Amino acid sequence: MNDRGDGMAAAYVPEGDGLDDRVPFLARLEREDRVALLALGRELSFDSRTALLRQDEPSAYVLLILTGWTKVTTCAPNGYEALHALRGPGDIVGESAALTGRPRSATVTALSPVRAVVVTHEKFRAFVAGSPEVSLTLLALTSDRTRAADRRSLEFAAMTVRERFAVLLLDLAHTHGARTGEGIELDIPLSKQELAGAVSASREMVQRLLKDLRERGIVRTGRRALVIVRPDALRRIARAGESAHPAVRQEAPQAP
């Protein structure tokens, strides 16, 4: 298998307190380990809105995402779907089930066409067991995600839905925004239901919030696009400004 990880940076070294759940797994590995891991699997392509992994199903493989973006969700018995994270190039999904042997704890769905390398549980476990450095890197990733999720849950508990939604849009603008003549266009296709699931709200509430933001000239919406015209206004709504971090990057209680 070719070195499909050439675009990754050198092994990740945390700054400050080391809390950075946004740095993907492959970017944290040394190049030699990254190439060796990718060589264990085979590359597959998934169409947009295709489920890569399904909640509660038995697990047989992990996925290493090369291109494209996915969402990590869980579904409650009443049908409510919570959006826990967005996973993209360099991210790993399905690793927890691979290591524990338990069913998937979440569903991972493609938001755009996705290319990923599929590695069986047996090969992945053997690779991790044979490399203390890779094991520690995987542990650090899990720790970062858990700490970030705890911190964000605390932050969100003190906010109204309106404030949480403003923080979510600001974070999406930072991670998935493209500058245009009108403002910052979000280039990841999230539905109103998915936005609602990211801030623990109803679809109707998100519709009302978007209507208010449109009327105030803060955002513009179209059939497939959302443009942030006045990010400064969103920061005022969010109260915590750019220091806040939304739940959209929050990891599920257990990786699928």
TrEMBL record:
The keyword DNA-binding applies. Gene3D superfamilies: Jelly Rolls, Winged helix-like DNA-binding domain superfamily/Winged helix DNA-binding domain. Residues 159-232 form the HTH crp-type domain. The keyword Endoplasmic reticulum does not apply. Residues 25-134 form the Cyclic nucleotide-binding domain. It comes from the Bacteria. Keywords: DNA-binding, Transcription, Transcription regulation. InterPro entries: cNMP-bd_dom (IPR000595), cNMP-bd_dom_sf (IPR018490), Env_Response_Regulators (IPR050397), HTH_CRP (IPR012318), RmlC-like_jellyroll (IPR014710), WH-like_DNA-bd_sf (IPR036388), WH_DNA-bd_sf (IPR036390). Pfam families: cNMP_binding, HTH_Crp_2. SUPFAM superfamilies: cAMP-binding domain-like, Winged helix' DNA-binding domain. This is Crp/Fnr family transcriptional regulator.
